[in-house]
Structures are given as C-alpha cells and as structure tokens.
Amino acid sequence: RLHVVTWNVGTASPPPDVTSLLQLDSAGPAMDMYVIGLQEVNSRITNFLSDLAFDDPWSIFFMTVLSPLGYMKLSSIRMQGLLLLIFVKHVHLPFIRDIHTHYTRTGLYGYWGNKGGVTVRLSLYGHTICFMNCHLPAHMENTEQRLDDFEKILEMQFEGENIPSTLDHDVLFWFGDLNFRIADYGIHFVRESINNKRYNLLWEKDQLNMAKKKEAFLQDFIEGPLQFKPTYKFDLYSDVYDTSEKKRKPAWTDRILWRVKNLCQHASKKGEFSEEEQTISVTLNNYISHMSYGISDHKPVTGTFGLELKPLLSDPLVTLNPEGEWSAEHDVLINYSALPEFPSSAWDWIGLFKVAFRHANDYVTYAWVEDDEVSSSKDGKQVYMSAAEIPDVGGEFLLCYYSNNLQSIVGVSQPFQIQPNRTLIEKDPTQEENSWMQKPDNLESQNEF
Question: What are the coiled-coil residue ranges (predicted)?
Fold first, then answer.
C-alpha cells in the first residue's frame, strides 16, 4: 500500500494537521510507504543554509507525524524548492536496497534549480522502483518547454554500477507541479464546467492529455481519471479560484502518473502474460485532491496505490536480536548473522533505536560491528554495547544494522524492553552531546543548492 502526495506549498509553513492528506483516518489497513513530493518549499538563501545543517521544517513535520506510527524516513533529496521524502514501515526496511538519489536542474537552461526534478530509486523486495518529483515551467504557452524538460529529466543517469536507467525500472512514478494547462477554452467556459462538475468537458483540452496522444515517450504513462476540480489557482485559505487582477484560468497542474515496464498490467488483461510471469502489478485505489488545505494557491493531490509484488527476496541480509535481558546496569550483547552474499564493511554499525525513531541517524547509541565484536563463529557473531550507553529509564527499543556499502538499514530486530536502572543514577547531561559528536559519518545529507 503506497500513498503518493504532490503539493506545491507556495513557500508556506506546514499546516496544523495532515490527517486527511495522509489518509490516517481511513478505515482500511495502514499504508506501507509514503512518498511525499513538495514544490516551492521556502528556499531563500538563509532558509536553505539552515536547512542544510538541519532537516528542513517540512521534513521535521512529517517525521513528527509519521514516526510515532511506525514509519522511518528512508530517503530524501532536496533541490532548492523541490523536496522528495520517502517514509516506510519498519518491517520492510530489510527488503529495501540500492537506494540512490539524483537531481536535475532545468531552470535557466540547466544552471538553476528552481525548476527540474528530484528522484529516488530503490529495490523493493527485488523489484526496481523509481520516484520522480518534478516542477516544470509555468504558463499556457510553454507546453513544448515542459515536454523538453521532462525528457531531459528522464535521460538522467544515477551514479553507481548496474543501476538501470529511469525508464528501465520495473515501476516509475512521475508526479509534481507539472504545470500543464487547459488550452483553447475561455475562463468562463472552464469555470462553468467546473461549477457543474462536468470535468470531462475539459479533459480533451488538458495539455498533458493532448501530449500523451502524440508524444511517444509519454504514451506508456498511466493516470487515473481527473474526477476532482482543477487544483490551481486558488485564493489563499479558500476554495475560490483566483480573484486577483490576473484571474488565472483553473488547471490540473498537480498530477500523479505511473509507468509499468513493458506494460505488464495491460498485457495481462489481454492474456499475454500468465499470473506466474507477472511479478509486479500496480492498482490505483484512489486519486483525489484535498480542498481543505489553503496554505498555497495549489490544492494537494494524492494517489493511493496497491503494489502487488512477487517477492524476489525472502530473507533479510542480516538477522539480529538482543542477547538475554537488557538493562543499564550491565554491558549487553547483540547477536547477529548475515547471509553469505552480504557485502560487510568495517564501517558497518548496529544502532539502538527507540521504537518510534525518525531516520537512520536517530539512534540512541551504536556499536561498530568490527571494533566491538566479542565472538565470531559460523553461526553468527556477537557485539557488545557498554552499560554506560544504555538509557537509564529503559523502555521499548529495537536494533538496526546499518550497511556502509549499501548505505541503508539491512536488518531490524523485533522490539524489546530495556529494564530501567533500579538505582536510576542521574544521567550525565554531556553524555548525549558526546554521543552525537561521535556518530558514524557514513550518513550523508542529500541536499543540493
């Protein structure tokens, strides 16, 4: 279950509540993954430099909402006002590998990042998936420029060996403020059609729909029906279309599309693929706008998908668990074992995390797998963690194995209890600061300016 969000936030701060945006109040099962693409995140120089040192306010906001629900920020990439965030349930972490990010500037002939695309690709249970958040040029007359820019973004290559090109991924999601407009019709006809909820009268003049009919590189992209009001341009904090002097014509600028390699899902309907051969399929469960959010002149759009995967990976690369009962009164041991093909490194580490942790460097403490190793056999290895590093107050925690070579978490333990220190010795206030200063430096920030 995958939930994709696209929202041009118009340099605004996060709203007080995103329950409906993230479908947190829906009666169905929880999402497995959230993919959140924002455009026009505040990117003034002062904001951007402070965001480089710390997470930006939008990332912090979504982490605060989602981490208590059992989601971790898996990856993020920012290019000026473009931000792409991916959150995933802990249970899936060992089966997500080969995470890479990329950005493509298209503003000012490729020299400026106010327009372009930010991309995250990964392997999910052995299937390659790519997420692409784009902000394309504005204005009615710039259709060709939008198409040229998107072609350029599609042509980008990830750094690293054996990473498929964008269109060679099993599934590609393309979303963002794509800025396509409604051609030909005048503003009165467009608004009247919207007021009467006769959106279908406008579909054939939507520039993206028209381009899909004639541009070969777009024809494999699929989109759900536009059965919601055009999401641009609104007066702030209202559901009234632009009343300024410019009176911009409404348009479906904010879109979510996807592409399945070789169009397996279409072919299967024609009986060309058996169920055994079809290892991945994508189903759109809903495609809606969210009119209650008024912080910008765009309304957010979400797409909720079902990804049906035939797992090509069934075992985590690393299995780990705490040895015996843990408390802050004595040193503790961690047991772990790895699959033969796991590319271990001296820079790998095992982190102790609170159950509601936000991202991979949100650990309480950690142990280096080589420096802190105490025993090794063909069945597994043991690593120790000092009692001085264990939180005195105890609580519910889990262990994660971070691979330096794969730049991702490859093993997660079941949650377990740490018993509180019975003497409850007051913790040295400098200890937390020192722990932060010593953190592994193999977690790189994915920001660009």
Answer: none
